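Risk register update: the risk of archive-format incompatibility is retired. Evidence:
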Amino acid sequence: MIETTVAGGRLRGELSGDGLVVFRGVPYARARRFAPPEPAEPWTGTRDATRHGPICPQPPVRVDGVMGPPQNGLVQDEDCLNLTVVTPGVDGTRRPVMVWIHGGAYVTGASSFAFYEGRRLAAEGDIVFVAINYRLGALGYLRLPGVSPGNLGLLDQVSALRWIKENIEAFGGAPECVTVFGQSAGAHSLACLMAMPAARSLFRRAILQSAPLGLKLGSPARSARMARHFTNALKADPRTAPVGEILRAQTETIVKVAGPGGLVSPPFCPTGGTGPLPPVRSWLAAAAAAEADVMIGVTRSEMNGFLNGNPAVRRMERLPVLGRGVAAVKTIAGRWVFETPSRKLADVLSAAGRRVFTYRFDWAAARSVFGACHCIELPFLLGEREAWAKSPMLEGADRETVDRMGRAMRAAWISFARNGTADSWPVHSPGAVPGRCWAAAGSPGTPVAVP
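Archived output:
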């Protein structure tokens, strides 16, 4: 066991067999229902930080059909503002810090899922890895006057970054060298953080993986409609209703607004013009004002992760005419939601003088129906092999290729976090194609032309 001291008190972490020290369930703030995050309460004695803390209450996770089953047995509780730290040593060394923001459509997910373990990054890069939990769904993003101000999940993330800046030296990290990286809703969150002046000073670099920027932000008018749907479904005071009823009404609202597949902007998501977040029309322009180095990229077939597991879609794809139509719809949707707005943000950042690197991930497992889908790059960066053993998107994958490409990808991410360069990638310039393509060769990639 290894101990360290943070602002709230003393922590006891676990020394693992690979020499890394892991602190779990570390409170960075306190959450009361529909209230902004408050400072975590200090404790006396030494706090056990060898077990995961509670995660935000949420419905069953929908990733089983693509990523595989997530970690079970995690406790859910509204007071869920805690984080995990993996460090090579509590030894006074000032290492680069990488902070992970998980995805999950702003409704599900947790940093404590085994998928998101950061041991390989910490060990291979001699960096401090941090993964945060934050509020989700109605508990994190309901905007209802007199009940909830909205954007509480974003405020949680800002609180986490502030806590990291103030305490990471206790874990062998350098507060002036923080890189935040996230995927899907986590990357969308990061674009929001880049647009918030209160958050910009809390990190130096940003990595946006498959950010659904085309979905933009919720408007105040749209958030008001979502709140009406939610309260009509709840039929009780949101401030006192049991959390199970909150989740039931949340699910009914999502199905009513987005349909069972949820293939439109999530009903519970950041609202523009609310709190420190700029209005919808100026959101990405504000994000471009962040003085941060940025890496941004997508996968080749993002929409496969949302559609290819649907038996009806797969049947249509087998028909000559309908199959071509489905393929076209997926391509258009992927460009609208992911590719085009990500490239535009990269162009705007580059034009503003920021150092930007871009990529596209093309690799696909041999027998998987999902191809280079949404989430496919995650096993190359996070989680141990066992966490991904039952992943449908990796069916038929050659493990040696995955390991080889994974080492190359992690080296690029680590290089970026350490010194702002992504190995030998070219710096992005406006109008350029993605600088690197991750394909089956297992090399760091080559320039690619996007059709």
